[in-house]
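Consider the tokenized backbone below.
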């Protein structure tokens, strides 16, 4: 394990109030999103879409790193440039999603366990040869009556730790993603309790697996009430609960925490990230940033709609969201700035 390399890469992923773009949707997930917009669900269209994203002018003004999917890292852009090289050319660090998806856990059918450890050492060696510098693994935790169980949390934490150790052995920074889903009727207090338990367990297992915490990135959920909860907490309450939970559970040695968006709207994700940094940045030992998928991509995907003539406008929308989230990482995002950036983009488009 090259500790210095791991630490430098992890720090580079979260520096400068910038974050990550998660463009690692599996083919079935990407196809589902395309189907909702009547976009053809083909390898060519998936490539054209991701090419549009990564060739967005100025994307690295708000993005340090991009999480890719296995299909994507083996593809080439329209001009023949290998996709991984195109990411590097954009001034962005390339990484890869490694897990094979969440499946029903044997004996605990209401809970999920993430698969993909078989053959992982060999896959990591190949990805390292391709020039990828980090990886991601997602565990899924559901809140409902009687779940999550202690067994479900521990099993997922053990697998996350094993994955992280293998990544560091291969010289790749592991993104550790234990996602407590926002689906359900639970309130903010219940999400806090479960998230705290999950993070304590994950870091316990990382320690037992001898994972270097200075060489990882944590990708957690924000502490949120369930999407079907009648009492939807406000932005300040969510920011306070989330930072309090992280301060209780995440070692100061971790260089950065990059939130998933988890079904929040683009503006909700930005507003809540901004409130955390605006109110608590001076108290936090780690960078607090973003690793959004839908909250970054959806406006662009909706505009693009599978049509080349919409690409420039879609890229403007993606750049807009990247800049909004960069501002949220410094606690400077606001609704006024949101609208002013959008208006400036529209003026620019008039001259295209």
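A designed sequence for it:
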């Amino acid at each position: 394990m090259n500790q210095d390399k791991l630490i430098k890469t992890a720090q580079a992923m979260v520096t400068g109030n910038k974050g990550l773009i998660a463009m690692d949707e599996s083919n079935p997930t990407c196809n589902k999103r395309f189907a909702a917009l009547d976009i053809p669900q083909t390898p060519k269209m998936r490539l054209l879409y991701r090419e549009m994203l990564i060739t967005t002018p100025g994307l690295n003004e708000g993005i340090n790193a991009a999480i890719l999917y296995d299909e994507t890292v083996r593809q080439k852009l329209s001009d023949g440039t290998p996709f991984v090289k195109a990411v590097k050319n954009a001034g962005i660090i390339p990484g890869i999603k490694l897990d094979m998806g969440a499946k029903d856990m044997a004996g605990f059918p209401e809970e999920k366990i993430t698969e993909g450890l078989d053959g992982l050492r060999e896959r990591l060696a190949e990805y390292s040869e391709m020039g990828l510098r980090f990886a991601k693994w997602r565990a899924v935790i559901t809140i409902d009556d009687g779940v999550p169980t202690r067994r479900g949390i521990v099993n997922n934490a053990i697998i996350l730790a094993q994955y992280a150790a293998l990544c560091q052995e291969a010289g790749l920074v592991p993104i550790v993603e234990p996602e407590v889903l926002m689906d359900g009727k639970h309130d903010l207090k219940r999400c806090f309790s479960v998230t705290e338990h999950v993070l304590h367990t994950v870091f316990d297992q990382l320690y037992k697996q001898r994972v270097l915490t200075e060489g990882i990135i944590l990708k957690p959920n924000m502490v949120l009430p369930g999407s079907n909860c009648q009492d939807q907490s406000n932005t300040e309450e969510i920011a306070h609960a989330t930072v309090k939970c992280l301060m209780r559970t995440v070692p100061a040695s971790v260089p950065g925490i990059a939130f998933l968006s988890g079904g929040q709207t683009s503006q909700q994700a930005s507003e809540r990230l901004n409130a955390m940094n605006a109110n608590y940045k001076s108290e936090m030992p780690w960078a607090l940033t973003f690793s959004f998928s839908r909250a970054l991509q959806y406006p662009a995907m909706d505009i693009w709609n599978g049509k080349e003539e919409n690409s420039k406008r879609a890229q403007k929308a993606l750049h807009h969201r990247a800049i909004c989230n960069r501002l949220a990482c410094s606690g400077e995002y606001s609704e006024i700035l949101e609208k002013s950036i959008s208006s400036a983009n529209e003026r620019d488009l008039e001259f295209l």
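The chain has 13 helices and ten strands.
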